UniProtKB/TrEMBL annotation:
The keyword Metal-binding applies. This is Fumarylacetoacetate hydrolase family protein. GO terms for molecular function: hydrolase activity. Keywords: Hydrolase, Metal-binding. Residues 77-282 form the Fumarylacetoacetase-like C-terminal domain. The keyword Iron-sulfur does not apply. It comes from the Bacteria. The lineage of its organism: Bacteria, Bacillati, Actinomycetota, Actinomycetes, Streptosporangiales. It holds the Pfam family FAA_hydrolase. It comes from Actinomadura napierensis.
Length: 295
């Protein structure tokens, strides 16, 4: 199953890539479930049970420009650093072995899969394609063996990063440089794990202006999703609708020689096999363009 945020309303999506149809959940459930995409995670088990037997009607064509994040208002956004060995190497660090490095992105940075994002002046703005996991029920001190039963599904994510601000403090303080408006794209929809051929081994990639920058598979994660859910929930409760950015592979601008940064006019395309594609354009501050963030 795929669920999406279409013009701020919760929908179920069916159909082949490029010809998707959306079905309004509130209307099809006769108000059993509301229209707010974020609210569905608080009733995830009931929603999945209803959706499995629902006779959907009144479908409309999906306009990609009207898609927002499938989890637009998470209470917690957690992110994992150095979770691919090749990215750790290009960043000049040893790969983590005991516990995954964890930081936060503030929820106000979340945006949809087709945003125009304003770049801060003078910044070194970088891309990081990532698999995103969204929590479907409260998870606290759960085991890795049970962890995936707490996951609602997966989406494509971009952990956009302004490296000067990220590295300005000593030691580096990640959260501010990774939480500018629009710096947390998630989309194009959430896909439940049973809808993926192999949820443990998905191809992911991103390109800038058509030039491939990153390419890997989620099977290369040092800490896969079950381990992350177990380790994070050992310390704090993970709440329904929380978002986890699971880490990025090699190929970011910081690790290139010479280094490369996003610039106004660039188009960033991010893809994950079986989930879909996001496409973002970038604008300079003060040019009259504002971040598009449908909720």
């Amino acid at each position: 199953m795929r669920i999406a945020n279409l013009s701020g309303r919760l929908v179920i999506v069916t159909g082949e890539p490029g010809a998707e149809t959306a079905y309004d959940v509130e209307k099809n459930s006769r108000d059993r479930f509301g229209s707010r995409p974020q609210a569905v995670y608080d009733e995830w088990a009931e929603f999945v049970s209803w959706a499995a037997a629902a006779d959907l009607a009144g479908g409309t064509a999906v306009d990609p420009g009207e898609l927002g994040s499938p989890a637009p208002e998470p209470r917690q956004v957690l992110a994992i650093g150095l979770n691919y060995r090749d990215h750790a190497a290009e960043s000049g660090f040893d790969a983590p072995s005991g516990e995954p490095p964890v930081f936060t992105k503030f929820p106000s940075c979340i945006t949809g899969p087709r945003a125009t994002i304003t770049l801060p002046p003078g910044g070194h703005n970088d891309w990081e394609v990532e698999l995103v996991a969204v929590i479907g029920r409260r998870a606290y001190q759960v085991t890795a063996e049970d962890a995936l039963s707490y996951v609602a599904g997966y989406a494509v994510g971009q952990d956009l990063s302004e490296r000067i601000l990220q590295m300005a403090a000593g030691p580096p303080q990640f959260s501010m440089g990774k939480s500018l408006p629009g710096f947390g794209p998630v989309g194009p929809w959430l896909v439940t794990l049973d809808d993926l051929d192999d949820p443990d081994d998905l191809e992911l990639s991103c390109a800038v202006n058509g030039e491939q920058m990153q390419h890997s598979r989620t099977s290369n994660l040092i800490f896969p999703v079950p381990a992350l859910v177990a380790r994070l929930s050992a310390t704090l409760p993970l709440l329904p609708g929380d978002v986890i950015f699971t880490g990025t592979p090699a190929g970011v601008g910081l690790g290139r020689e010479p280094q490369r940064w996003l610039a106004p006019g660039d188009v960033l395309t991010s893809r994950i096999e079986g989930i879909g594609e996001m496409r973002h354009t970038f604008a300079a501050a003060g040019d009259g363009t504002t971040t598009h963030n449908p909720v």
